[in-house]
Design goal:
CATH topology of the largest domain: Jelly Rolls
Shape: elongated
Strand content: 25-35%
CATH architecture of the largest domain: Sandwich
Protein name: CUB domain-containing protein
Strand order of the largest sheet: 10-11-13-19-15-16
Structural class: alpha+beta
InterPro entries: CUB_dom (IPR000859), Non-NMDA_GluR_Accessory (IPR053207), Sperma_CUB_dom_sf (IPR035914)
Helix content: 10-25%
Number of strands: 20
CATH superfamily of the largest domain: Spermadhesin, CUB domain
Keywords: Disulfide bond, Membrane, Transmembrane, Transmembrane helix
Bound molecules: 2-acetamido-2-deoxy-beta-D-glucopyranose
Radius of gyration: 31 Å
Length: 352
């Protein structure tokens, strides 16, 4: 109310036709704001099926749609809110998912096959994350295809379940939540001083696998993870990406707002090596020396399903064979090029 009065006073001070327009505009603005707030309040409070999960109470657990596995009722609006802290991320894994979709009814066949994909007018679960303090929708999930794993970009996340007028006996969904600090990456040794970094030491394991955060689900936004490979002296590391789906456009830079994978023989940027994004098949690489770094980085827009890779520390076979060839061949063991030797014999012949 105070704000309206202040606006009115200001407008009156201007005292011309512009003031009237200004007054109308500010009135419309305040109506918009208050309706938005009312709408927000109606969707965020007051439903008996709302649930709040806090990581200081439980690090993991399950949750379901109302009445699961019995059919859920019509006009449901349930909020499931997850609140962790620090560098915890919320991971949601759906284990069962059967929601009523109007296009499942033979009487309501879609006119176009692609309509099946749309969640408009269907019972649905919507996932929200927080970007810069604002609630942002990641996606809608509907029908009976189990959604991929979800992971938040921060310590909070929320899901909203909405059912339409009819449920026709659909049993709903069941899911597992966990507050994780390892981004769903369970190989390597996590470096606790870093937000997301993993160390792979040849002395611990000569081969193994690693993957992007939340793989095989969509990777979270605004996330940077490092994978450091430490070979022993005389070893290199070979890396093969058997699955690679990183949202972006070559050259995977800022201008195309790309997510990317950067690889390097150093802690710093390796100008010889490109960044990778998009869909790649059987991407392979080998380190120049005993250290190698793989870095994954996502921005605050769009998501891919990430990567799955294997690594192997191998002795540097090439160096051994080169050394052996050198020592067994007398010609190449000479410090002088063959031309010099010929010149020497020619000179010796001429002098004598
Ligand atoms: C779930 O959390 C408990 C501690 O709250 C822990 O002991 C258990 O290992 C966790 N289970 C999974 C699957 O993360
Ligand atoms: C790798 O492991 C060895 C043996 O445990 C250790 O001496 C070495 O410092 C480790 N390297 C790194 C970079 O952690
Ligand atoms: C990977 O390491 C295991 C032992 O940790 C070994 O048995 C296996 O042969 C290795 N695989 C390859 C391809 O080197």
């Amino acid at each position: 109310m105070c704000r309206v009065i202040i606006t009115r006073n200001r407008s009156v001070a201007i005292n011309d036709r512009g003031a009237l327009i200004l007054l109308q505009l500010s009135f419309m603005y305040y109506m918009f704001v208050s309706f938005s707030l009312l709408y927000w309040a109606s969707t965020t409070t007051g439903s008996p099926c709302d649930r709040l999960f806090r990581s200081d109470v439980d690090k993991n657990g399950t949750f379901t749609s109302p009445g699961y596995p019995a059919a859920y009722g019509p006009f449901m609006n349930c909020n499931y809110e997850f609140r962790g802290h620090g560098r915890e991320r919320v991971q949601i894994i759906f284990t069962d998912f059967v929601l009523h979709h109007p296009h499942d009814d033979p009487s309501e066949k879609p006119h176009h096959p692609w309509l099946k994909q749309s969640c408009d007018g269907a019972d649905r679960v919507t996932a929200f994350i927080s970007v810069g303090g604002n609630k942002e929708k990641i996606d809608d999930f509907c029908g009976s295809a189990t959604p991929r794993e979800l992971m938040s970009n921060s310590a909070v996340m929320s899901l909203h379940f909405h059912s339409t007028t009819v449920s026709r006996g659909s049993r709903g969904f069941k899911a597992r939540y966990s507050f994780v600090s390892n981004f769903g990456i369970t190989t390597g040794e996590q470096i606790s001083s870093s937000p997301c970094a993993f160390r792979f030491n040849s002395t611990t394991s000569t081969n193994g696998t690693f993957w992007s955060p939340n793989f095989p689900g969509f990777y979270p936004r605004d996330t940077e993870c490092h994978y450091f490979f430490h070979a022993q002296v005389g070893e290199r590391v070979k890396i093969v990406f058997s699955y690679f789906d990183i949202e972006g456009m070559i050259p995977c830079g800022l201008t195309s707002a790309s997510d990317f994978v950067e690889v390097s023989n150093f802690m710093t940027v390796d100008r010889k090596l490109p960044r990778y994004c998009g869909l790649q098949k059987d991407l392979k690489m080998e380190s120049d020396g005993a250290f190698f770094r793989v870095t994954f980085k996502s921005n605050d827009r769009f998501d891919g399903t990430g990567f799955f890779a294997s690594y192997q520390f191998t002795p540097v076979a090439d160096a051994v064979t080169i050394t052996r060839r050198r020592s067994s061949s007398p010609a190449s063991s000479s410090p002088y090029p063959p031309g010099c030797i010929l010149l020497f014999y020619l000179l010796a012949y001429l002098i004598s």
